[in-house]
Amino acid sequence: MEPIVSKRDAGQIVRAAQFRSGVSWAAIAQAVGKDPVWVVAALLGQHALTAADAEIVGGLLSLDPEVREALQMPPYRGSFDSPVPSDPTIYRLYEAINVYGPAIKELIHEEFGDGIMSAINFKVDIERREDPAGDRVVITLDGKFLDYNW
């Protein structure tokens, strides 16, 4: 039996296959009928695809069976190699949370009470907003509120 490719390795293989194929992330998401942010996160190793979705993606990107199998495995979510991400785009998100996170937390508690925003029952939307000073990136984090109760 061939060993299963790791989620990390599968994500790198998928990135290369997507780049080489010229198939856009949006087209892949449309083919599986799911939200683009969720699909890309899944393909980079943060979610598990269904067998049917792994076959669709595998067909679009000509992925080997071992990679298709890895895409179906439950992941270890959210783990970075270093304590502070070094990729500039990811670092800016990290920086924004470091700067605004405590204020966001206080405002969530004031509005909803003691609890957290779910990252399981969660949606993300990314859009471009035109601005005369330069286009803006708008990221909406939409998570269910989960109260702490004993």
Structural account:
It is a single chain. The chain has two domains: 7-70, lambda repressor-like DNA-binding domains (434 Repressor (Amino-terminal Domain), Orthogonal Bundle); 88-147, Cyanate Lyase, Chain: A, domain 2 (2-Layer Sandwich). It is built from six helices and two strands, in the order ααααααββ. It has helices at 7-21, 25-32, 36-43, 51-61, 65-70, 88-112, and strands spanning 115-129, 136-147. The protein has a two-stranded antiparallel ribbon with strand order 1-2. A hairpin with a 6-residue loop joins strand 1 (115-129) and strand 2 (136-147). Helix 2 (25-32) crosses helix 3 (36-43).
Overall CATH architecture of the largest domain? Orthogonal Bundle
Task: Spell the H/E element sequence.
Answer: HHHHHHEE
Biggest sheet, spatial arrangement of strands: 1-2
Q: Given this structure, which CATH class of the largest domain is correct?
A: Mainly Alpha
The named CATH superfamily of the largest domain: lambda repressor-like DNA-binding domains
Tally of separate domains? 2
DSSP helical segment count: 6
What portion of residues is helical? 40-55%
User: What is the overall pLDDT average?
Assistant: 92
Number of E strands: 2
Output the structural class.
alpha+beta
Low-pLDDT segments, ≥5 res: none
CA-based shape: globular
Topology:
Blueprint (H helix, E strand, L loop, with lengths): L6 H15 L3 H8 L3 H8 L7 H11 L3 H6 L17 H25 L2 E15 L6 E12 L3
Antiparallel strand pairs: 1-2
List keywords for this structure.
single chain, 150 residues, alpha+beta, 434 Repressor (Amino-terminal Domain), Cyanate Lyase, Chain: A, domain 2, 2 domains, two-stranded antiparallel ribbon, 6 helices, 18% strand
